[in-house]
Amino acid sequence: MRSVIPPLLLLAVSGMAADQRPVKLDIQAEWYGVRAGEQVPIRIGLLSATNQPAQAPKRFDVQLQARLPSGEVKPLRTVTLEQGESTKEVSIAPPGFGMIYIWAKQPELLPGGVYLAVRTSGSTIAQSSPRTPTMSRSPTLPQQRAVEARPAPAPNLTGAPPRPQTPGPHAIPKMALRYSPDRRFLADGKDAATVQAFLLGEFTATDIQLNLFDSSGTMKPIPLTILKGRDSGRSALTFNQPGTVTVEFMGSEPPAELDGDKKLEIPFMPAITHVRLEASPPVISLADKADLLLTFRDEQERPVAIDVARPVTFVIETGRGELAQEEVDVGAGQFEARTTFQPAWLGRAEISATSPNLLTVSIPLQVSMPTGLLLCSLGGGLVGGYFSYSKRKRSGRRQIGIGIVTGFLFYWACLFLGLGAIGHAVVINPLSAFALSTFGGWMQTGVFAFWKSRLKAP
To answer: CATH number for the domain including 334?
Structure first.
């Protein structure tokens, strides 16, 4: 029984380490209705695949941008998360007015985002008294972030003069429906899309309950409710199959008018959370090549096929050598990318690989001198030179020395220039090294004419 405990502990530690890997960015705002020019406190966090806070493995520079209703994107600021940090709180002033999407992006992470309802500076917004933070520490519980507005007179998203604060008895509320963040979600049953309804007109004297059709059947809480005196309500949904989830507005109680699309199409993709890079073999000589294999994986380390084409970039971070392909396009339905590394110097080399919105991974390679092949080559050249001397003794024993040199040069040409027209695996065989060098040593300087003729051949 004791022998079982250490492996179990290793599995637990391995799972914890994988769970701590950052996968996506999360944005939470202290409130979701603001006046133009007003500073809004927001929290930017790193989340793992299971929506747990994750520490930055290195410095991350997160770009904050605002997308206006017109589609124009305006930069806001850069927020830096140093190694070991998981969250950062900053304040921003959303530009313009209307439904403004605040977007956080970093090339190695899934982007995060949130919608803010920005009113013109001349209008009055709801305010709580006192104003209390609403940034939830748990992104998986959207109901905890429901304190989005502050009771007060009517919001104004159109730029027109403020409307009367008390709606008429037969006034129909106007609303807008959005989901965030604006990206493809992981189909793992955990990556939640937030569906939010914003009140565009006067605050109502009662709760507004939205009847929404949800094709995933996972939306919570239901019905989505805009509470009395607040300007928005939120629900969340997940899905465990790649595809599109439809959320459609079917009506509300009391009746309300929806401004814009009544249907949201929320995309879900294969649950790829990271990539793994492997080298075979991890220790090579100058005469060898290492095969590099990158695979797309989920949080449980299972290979996952992609649904749309993805680029993969390989980079030599340290060491000297050459990659057969630096850019590899992986087609839909595949789950791996391959290339080879040919070293050019001794020592340690490090190769990294990256694909958009996934953490960069790297792997070390140790490059050593091919001592065995070198000895076989010198021995073969010596034997070939002796054969040449035995046949033409009048040329002197110098033929033996010439044979060592020409034998090595011929083997080098076969190894790196493909002169022997045989596979690389055959060339690096020690017996092949001896045989080819023997041939080169026996041919003496005639090997250069043979070399020239082979290189000119079509």
So the answer is: 2.60.40.10
